[in-house]
């Protein structure tokens, strides 16, 4: 059988199921990664499983999100993760070492292996030929304990890149073009596999920009072949022994095929407030800019920042612009410092932040009220920057740098010739901020500061579900809406009782109060409910508030799994028009739930309106068991009994 790159890796790791589109498969996971804002929960859950040592080939815990230490909370979380990692066989990347995806690509990614990460941008690893998938913390904890990771065998989309990018057009524009075509829901249950002559002009970090932002399509993941460019990157990282060639077989079957002519591609821009709101940059030129932010796991590689340094060299940023730059890793920052590029950035007026997520996750550098912020990041959801009234646009590093100089959104094509930044033959390799785990059978003490609170637990399903509709929300509600993430809340990622008071407040500030008043209930959602991140807190906070079910028109993949993992029913209207019929505080009942969840549809009664609706529970048998048990941890414990 002729296989695609993704199918080859899946076949190599298939523990349960077969390579049939739409069927559930269980994959063996070689590597895991966590970042600190999802990691504390993942490690608390890992501890709850009672497994002594991770069973993966390599697991890495990164600190990159919660870097502001305005109180002891973040530092306490870091120490907890550092000690729990050391004890259980996990590498620890210290704060300052960089953004998880950038560092993982540099120091750990291995072509042909599977990577599961508790961060939705884990598909960055697809740039180096890994099958890299984002998941909730509990799924990652299960993988660390040796369990399979389950997905629906996705459709594979062939993205053929033809020709070569013009000067001023970059890898970011390629993924913006895919987002323009597919939108934020267009990638659900799909893997985007890149090929064609155009890929030979893309280095691994450029490929990683594309696979990284493929997460915005809602895709399972995105992937490039592992070829000579992959070898060159690994060699430059001193890891050529990790190379393995993986290319698609001739005649491999793809469910869908698209072509992008790189020579014809123009610079693009994603307008507020969605990464798929993509238009030609030329149509947005001359908008005055208040802030330019360069960095994030999408665009903070050595080559990205070298381009920026060359554009800024000898010039000064515009009077109206605040330029902030967060390098992706210590390796990148160190190299810029050694070769003089950092001096060029500073001289031009850039504010250099530490190596981490920073403004991307709203940890500092919020724009001014009504501000226009131009960012090289991957998300521009309303309020994510920390300023609700700000308008955030997403662009390439070239556009960001040129616009920082002019003070207006500017097409770089007229300003720069071919920049010709080559990948270095050797990166600066210094892993002194990566701590190795302790030997087996150690007596490491795990340090738990007062911010580390137990996570909420669910009960097995009872006879019926009764509850009021506590909130009714529109389409495309993100995990940022469900569990906001900003500089004030991020320090409480290991403290669900505190966070729960902010759950869904961007949609309705009264929701947590109402949920507590009625002792829990039901959430009503539109299409693509829970899009955005892998943030498990978007399921844990509702669980803490007593949410038993979410009824929506459709769900985003990772969030749906997170709900199931926590024993919250993700139900879908059979007839989505009935959404209109249901109002906040309507009382809903699902009788005989244990019988009903085994049927094709579930009947729910609206006592307030005197009506009945049919709902679908689109889950696998395994997930049904999880829901019956009240979540994955309960199921694991019951099976181990
Ligand atoms: Fe961090 Fe933003 Fe990426 S929060 S992991 S830089 S999407």
Automatic annotation (TrEMBL):
Q: Which residues form the Aconitase A/isopropylmalate dehydratase small subunit swivel domain?
A: 513-576
| PROSITE patterns, alphabetized | ACONITASE_1 (PS00450), ACONITASE_2 (PS01244)
Gene Ontology CC entries for this record: cytosol
> In its keyword annotation, does this UniProt entry include Coiled coil?
no
Q: Which GO terms describe its molecular function?
A: 4 iron, 4 sulfur cluster binding; aconitate hydratase activity; metal ion binding
What biological process terms from GO does the record include?
tricarboxylic acid cycle
Cofactor(s) required for function per UniProt: [4Fe-4S] cluster
Pfam families on file: Aconitase, Aconitase_C
List the InterPro entries.
Answer: Acnase/IPM_dHydase_lsu_aba_1/3 (IPR015931), Acoase/IPM_deHydtase_lsu_aba (IPR001030), Aconitase/3IPM_dehydase_swvl (IPR015928), Aconitase/IPM_isomerase (IPR050926), Aconitase_4Fe-4S_BS (IPR018136), Aconitase_4Fe-4S_dom (IPR036008), Aconitase_put (IPR006250), AconitaseA/IPMdHydase_ssu_swvl (IPR000573)
Mind listing the UniProt keywords for this protein, alphabetically? Iron, Iron-sulfur, Lyase, Metal-binding
Enzyme class label: lyase
Show where the Aconitase/3-isopropylmalate dehydratase large subunit alpha/beta/alpha domain sits: 7-407
Segments spanning the bilayer are none
Q: Which Gene3D superfamilies match?
A: Aconitase, domain 3, Aconitase, domain 4
Give the EC number: 4.2.1.3
Query: How does the annotation summarize its subunit structure?
Result: Monomer.
Q: Which family does it belong to?
A: Belongs to the aconitase/IPM isomerase family.
What name does UniProt use for this protein? Aconitate hydratase
């Amino acid at each position: 059988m002729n296989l695609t790159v993704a199918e080859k890796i899946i076949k190599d790791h298939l523990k349960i199921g077969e390579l049939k589109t739409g069927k559930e498969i269980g994959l063996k996971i070689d590597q895991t990664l966590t970042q600190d804002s999802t990691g504390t929960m993942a490690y608390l859950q890992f501890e709850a499983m009672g497994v002594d040592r991770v069973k993966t080939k390599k697991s890495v815990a990164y600190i990159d999100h919660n870097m502001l230490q305005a109180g002891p909370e973040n530092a306490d979380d870091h120490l907890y993760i550092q000690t729990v990692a050391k004890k259980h066989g996990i590498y620890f990347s210290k704060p300052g070492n960089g953004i998880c995806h950038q560092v993982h690509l540099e120091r750990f990614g291995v072509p042909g292996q599977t990577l599961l990460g508790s961060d939705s941008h884990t598909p960055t690893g697809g740039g180096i030929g890994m099958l890299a998938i984002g998941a909730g913390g509990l799924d990652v904890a299960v993988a660390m304990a040796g369990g399979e990771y389950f997905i629906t065998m996705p459709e594979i989309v062939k993205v053929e890149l033809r020709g070569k990018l013009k000067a001023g057009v970059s890898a970011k524009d390629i993924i913006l073009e895919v987002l323009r075509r597919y939108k934020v829901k267009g990638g659900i249950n799909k893997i985007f596999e890149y090929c064609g002559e155009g890929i030979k002009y893309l280095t691994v970090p450029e490929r990683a920009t594309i696979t990284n932002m493929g997460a915005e399509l809602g895709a399972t993941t995105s992937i490039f072949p592992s070829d000579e460019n992959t070898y060159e990157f690994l060699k430059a990282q001193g890891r050529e022994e990790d190379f393995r060639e993986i290319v698609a077989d001739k005649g491999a079957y793809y469910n869908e095929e698209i072509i992008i002519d790189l020579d014809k591609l123009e610079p693009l821009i994603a307008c507020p407030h969605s990464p798929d709101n993509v238009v030609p940059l030329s149509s947005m030129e001359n908008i005055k800019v208040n802030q330019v932010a360069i960095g994030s796991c999408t665009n903070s590689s050595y080559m990205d920042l070298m381009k920026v340094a060359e554009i800024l060299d000898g010039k000064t940023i515009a009077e109206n612009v605040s330029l902030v730059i967060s390098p992706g890793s210590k390796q990148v920052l160190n190299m810029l410092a050694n070769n003089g590029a950092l001096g060029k950035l500073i001289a031009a007026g850039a504010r250099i932040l530490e190596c981490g997520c920073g403004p991307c996750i709203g940890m500092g550098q919020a724009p001014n009220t009504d501000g226009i912020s131009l960012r090289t990041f991957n998300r521009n959801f309303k309020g994510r920057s920390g300023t609700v009234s700000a308008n955030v646009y997403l662009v390439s590093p070239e556009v960001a740098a040129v616009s920082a100089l002019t003070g207006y959104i500017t097409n770089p094509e007229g300003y720069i010739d071919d920049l010709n930044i080559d990948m270095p033959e050797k990166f600066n390799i210094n892993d002194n901020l990566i701590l190795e785990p302790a030997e087996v059978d150690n007596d490491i003490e795990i340090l738990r500061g007062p911010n580390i609170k137990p996570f909420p637990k669910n009960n097995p399903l009872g006879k019926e579900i009764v509850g009021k509709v506590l909130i009714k929300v529109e389409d495309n509600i993100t995990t940022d809406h469900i569990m906001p993430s900003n500089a004030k809340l991020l320090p409480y990622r290991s403290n669900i009782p505190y966070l729960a008071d902010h759950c869904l407040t961007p949609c309705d500030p009264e929701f947590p109060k109402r949920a507590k008043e009625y002792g829990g209930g039901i959430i009503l959602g539109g299409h693509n409910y829970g899009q955005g991140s892998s943030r498990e807190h978007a399921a844990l906070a509702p669980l803490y508030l007593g949410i038993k079910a979410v009824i929506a028109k459709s769900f985003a993949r990772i969030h749906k799994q997170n709900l199931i993992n926590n024993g919250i029913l993700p139900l879908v209207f059979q007839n989505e028009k009935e959404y209109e019929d249901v109002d906040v505080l309507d009382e809903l009942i699902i009788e005989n739930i244990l019988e009903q969840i085994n049927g094709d549809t579930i009947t729910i009664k609206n006592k307030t309106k005197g009506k009945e609706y049919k709902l679908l529970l689109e889950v696998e048998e395994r997930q049904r068991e999880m829901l019956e048990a009240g979540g994955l941890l309960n199921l694991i414990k019951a099976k181990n009994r």
